[in-house]
Amino acid sequence: MLSLSLITLSCLLTGTTALSASERTTVLNAHNNFRSQLALGKAVDKNNNAMPKGKNIYQLTYSTSLETSAQNWANGCVFEHSGAEDKGRTSMLLFLTKPLHQL
């Protein structure tokens, strides 16, 4: 996790969003290492309790085209607080028990 934190800090300080090839490898290896530990039943949670053995946990590969697509999407995000008129919308939708047209 230290590597991922350093990459994030580096992006924040430099304004860089793209990962280098070595950073991609570091992130991918960290994810796959944890997934492997989980699949083998050797992973522990934040309280150091053993987590249950995972099933169907396959090795990940890195997609630079998906990275580009995600970055393009993120570039369109507006990073500011919502106004008062937007409060409550998400929580209301999370608890609907019927489709909207049936309300």
Automatic annotation (TrEMBL):
Q: Which domain of life is it from?
A: Eukaryota
Q: Which CDD domains match?
A: CAP_euk (cd05380)
On whether Signal is a keyword of this UniProt record, the answer is yes
Q: Which Pfam families match?
A: CAP
| Keyword hit for Signal | yes
Keywords assigned by UniProt?
Signal
Q: Which residue ranges does the record assign to the SCP domain?
A: 22-102
Please report the name of this protein according to its UniProt entry: SCP domain-containing protein
Q: Where is the signal peptide?
A: 1-18
